[in-house]
Fold this protein.
Amino acid sequence: MLSEFIATNREEIVTRTRGKVTSRPGPRATLEELNHGVPIFLSQIIETLRLSGADSPAIGESASKQGGDQLKQGFTVGQVVHGYGDVCQAITELAEEKKAPITIEEFHTFNRCLDEAIARAVTEYMRQHEATLNDAGTERLGSLAHELRNTLSGALLAFDILKKGNVGVCGATGSLLGRSLIGLRDIVDRSFVEVRLELGAQKRERTSLSELVREVESDAAMGMNMVGVTLMVDAVDEGVFVEVDRQIVHAALANLVQNAFKYTRPGSNISLRAYATGNRTFIDVEDECGGLPAGNPQNLFRPFERRAFDRTGLGLGLAISRRGVEANGGRLGVRDLPGKGCVFSIELPRAPEA
């Protein structure tokens, strides 16, 4: 019987399947899939073949559970499908090599079992995945609406006071209006970048590093005046270029500068430096916030994470910035300057000379 053949040659099939999982071009194999997923796939096939047929409810129940478990373990839907296919191919090849006495009817049953298992596993995977997205999406949408409402309320309040003519535009109320409008712009930019990243709609182009820095410096001018800090920008080599999605990287850098404005103490400085070393480029934003809070600095890049001494905003800016930089083949990190501030650094591949 085919089930006995698989059970007898289990280790050989596992080894062959792992080889296929490792060598396939996509989806990329994960350590979890190699060490955990392959044996589970094989055990499920053995179990389903021992049942009366692919129409048995137990097959669907087992596959549904497997699909849900794989979602929790971090598998992609592609890995769910390809995992079954790799096991199937390994079994078929080994049976042919060993000339195993397996009937056509057994192979038909085997294929029906796989077909049913894949369908049920993917269905359950997608059902749970959609439910997870709906819950997270509803929570995020509510938080975004709350942030937009608060920021817009500040702008409307300042505008209402200003139009009465009792205070000047250059005073504190005018500054409130300016900060609120900048906040609205940042929320919209962040949401725009997040949508593009989710859709995979990046469009890379050859971009001058000096132009990118000048654009961010120009955008930051208004915010700098609002908070009473000085932005110091070092000269950038005009001959340095990067191949990136200009809007996404611009938004990531602008968010770092806005964060520096938010946390730097009034009357102090923010430094913006961009330079190249070999085939890599670096953009550093150094602030004078007094140093990072205790704990792992990398936690700042987690969604909904905010610095301990500030609870405003959603805490999504740094997470989205890191995603944007990584989508362009770069890295975004931070290092602490205890007692002084911190430095956020964007590292990107340098584009070859034209």
Summary: Residues 310 and 318 are 14 Å apart (CA to CA).
